[in-house]
Every structure is written in C-alpha cells, then in structure tokens.
C-alpha cells in the first residue's frame, strides 16, 4: 500500500515536471480540480467526477485525485453540469482529503 | 438573459427528489448531460430545476437509484399555453396583432430628406407627392432608382440623389451644387434714370456716359447715366454709337417726407387673471368641440393654437387639435400727457429712421416736428437723406448719323 502511494506520488511529480516544461495546463494532465472562490460566498468547481454528499451545511465532492469538502451555511448549487458547478452560500472552510 | 429566455420557451420544472440516495441521482444526471440548476437541500429533501425535455430522460435513472420524484412547480411557455388554451380571444388577439403589424409594415410612414440646403424639405416633399410618392403609400410601388432620376432631372443644382427604403422609412439624400451659378450680365443697352428729384452727391460710372456731375440738380425721370457712348472721328464729329448696359453707383441727397398722426386718446387693455380654455378637434374640416360653454366675459381676447397630429416628422394625419385660450380684460380710456405724446412721436420717428438706415440710407438732416392738438397728435416734416438712386430703363437706339456715310460717298 505504501509502495503504491509512493509510486503514484513519484508519477505525479514526473507529470508535474512534464506539464511545467511543456507549459501544458495542469488540470488536463494531472486531472486536478480547479476551485475558484470569490470572497466567502461563491465558488466555481471544475474537473470533478461527482457529488458524494450534499446538505445545506456541507458539500463533499469527488475529484480524480482527492475529495473536496466545503463546509458552510445555506449552501446551494446554482447549476450542476458534467464539468462545472457553482456553489453559493456562506463558505466557512474548504478541506482536501486523500 | 438569453439563456433564461430559452429556458422559458422550452419550459422547465421544479422537482423534489427523495429516497435512498439523491446524490447518486444527481451524479447520474450530470453524467447523462442533464442540466440541473437551483439545487437546494432543505429538510433532507433535494429540490432542483430541470427542463421538460430532460425530465423525460429521468425514468431509467429513477429506477436505477431507487429514488422518488415529485413535481412541485411548472414554469415556461408550454405550460402557459396549456393553461390558457381555452382563451380563444387571447390567441386571436396575438394573431391579429401580428397580422396588423405585418400589414402596417407594408407602407411608407416617414419620408426623410437630408442634405438639402437651398431647398426646404417641404419643397422636395411636395414635388414627390406630385409624382405619386407620398406618406402612407405601399412600399412595393416605390422604385428608388426612379425617384433618384426624378429628383435629378427636376432640379438642376442637385447633382447627386439617393433614395433608400429602411424599414418603413424612405430616406432621401441629396447633394446640392454649392458653387454659385454664373451671374448673367445684363447685355441689353440701358440707361439709368432718376427715380425722384434730388441733388447728386457722388457718381462713379463704370459703363456708359455720365450725364450729371456732383452737385447737379436732377428732376425725376432725368437720365443720369446714358448707355450710349459716342464715338468721334478725327473731325470731332460723331461717327458711331456704342451701346452698353449702363452701370454706376450714384448717391444723391433727397427729401423724405414723413407724416404720421395718432389720437391723443387711447384705450388700453388691462388683463384680469380670468382665463378659460376650450379644446376642439377638427377632422377633415369638421369641428368637434371637446369642451364648450358660454363665455361670461364682457371683453375678451381669443388666442387659438392649432396643431396637426403627425407620425414621425413629416407624415401629417387629417386630425387637428385646437386649443382656444380666452382671456378677459377690462378696457380703459385715457389721454396721453404732453410728455407721453412727445415720447410716442419720437419713438415712431425713430422706428421710421431705423427702417431707412437698414435700407442703407444715410440721414443728414432731420426736420420733423411734433404738434400736439386737442384730439390728435401730428408728426410731420421731412428728412434730408443721402441714398442710392437710379432705375434701369432701355436705351433709345439712335441711327448712326447720316453725315458720315454722305462724306464717304463724296470722297
């Protein structure tokens, strides 16, 4: 298990280097999620694969590499498509889980 | 905005999802390219919006995820039409509206003329209406090229014209020749004669033979400059005549009489604050009073304002809206005092002098007196003025003196 994590981390670093030298966007190569947060009340999320949990206090999203947990109050999804979503409400914390 | 309009036209629903795993339902929706917006979680129930078309694709997802669904709200045009399907007049109105709009768009409602400086819009519009181009005509009947040609052939100084139909407007643009046309010189031989008795103060002759000099006393009708120029031969005899159109600047001292009289008594209007308004509508010379009633004033002025209703700038409708203002006044008779009469007389004289000066007349002497009588006030006298005089008349053509031909024969 440890080996696998180390290997994937190594692989990740390699891809990162490739992306840097070729000047390619990292979200395509690494499959990283893009989070754009405006103030405390608005967040755009791109490059995710699905919702795990959704209540008005907590939104948990699954991305390719990790899980993103957004905690707050009166959270609401304005729109939700295959590759982009917009969340409004009072955002208190954003957590990454591996 | 546009997206909202599209959503409205297609129709959309608000649904409530509950059951085992609503999150899975949402993920599957996004996976199958079903757009969801306004997602909300309240009391463990998910509410969201989606379009009608996508709603039809939901059945397999519902089965798969074992969730239940409830429609809570319906929005959009399809539902609106369904709800009001029995209101036939409403739909009839929409159709009638479109038809009327279409029919109205078949006509020319405004003719706009631009680029004209020396001719007013009305002149060109009148010309066009004489040639069957008028407000309210069918667009089909207009041939822009023909209008352009018509304008160019009618007016010599319009060197370029363009006609264009834009919506229900006919735009006419013209370009006028701004070069001043040739001044046609008067070629027929003519004399300059005096128009009244005067004393010449200055004379500058450009063409012709001057018959007077500075200081000459001239009577009305005398020739000042003759168009005939004598040509002498070596013997000092007249050999030939040359004829020109006489041209000269002649200034002369003349008398300008001035007589004026006004009554020493006058009535003045003292307007009271009382005022009444009347309105009327005139349709094709038929007057319809909108507000009428007796006028109880003894003496009053009536001021009528008429305005014709129009569409755009130039399309006049046959409706005229009139407004009548009735103002009451009380007339009082009073007499001018001596000072007032003199002031009034002076004012009248001054106005007269100003008119003269505007014409280019120089006033040298002023011999006008004001006499105040019992009933009226007389202003009379004369002004000595220097003005440009002279009137053009045709020259009498004389036959060439006989002697010359005679002597030629003798030799």
Question: Would you write up a description of this structure?
Answer:
By secondary structure, chain A is α+β, with helices and mostly antiparallel strands. Chain A has two domains: 1-30; 32-98, Immunoglobulin-like (Sandwich). Helices cover 27% and strands 49% of the residues of chain A. The longest helix of chain A has 21 residues, at 2-22. Chain A is elongated and about 40 Å long. With 411 residues, chain B is of the alpha+beta class. Among the domains of chain B are: 2-82, Metallocarboxypeptidase-like (Alpha-Beta Plaits); 110-176, Ubiquitin-like (UB roll) (Roll), CATH 3.10.20.310; 259-264 and 336-387; 270-335, no CATH class. Chain B is 26% helix and 45% strand. The termini of chain B are far apart. Chain A binds chain B through residues 50-56, 75-82, and chain B through 22-23, 26-27, 29-31, 33, 35-42, 44, 46, 48. Strand 5 (67-80) of chain A pairs antiparallel with strand 2 of chain B.
Instruction: Give the overall silhouette of chain A.
Output: elongated
SS content category of chain B: alpha+beta
Estimate nothing, just give the exact number of structural domains of chain A. Answer: 2
- Please report the total strand number of chain A as a whole number: 6
Mean pLDDT figure of chain A? 84
Strand order of the largest sheet of chain A: 1-2-6-5-4-3
Give the class of chain A from helix and strand content and strand pairing.
Answer: alpha+beta
Q: Provide the residue-averaged pLDDT of chain B.
A: 84
Pfam families (chain A): YabP (PF07873)
Organism (chain A): Candidatus Galacturonatibacter soehngenii
Protein name (chain A): Sporulation protein
InterPro entries (chain A): Spore_YabP/YqfC
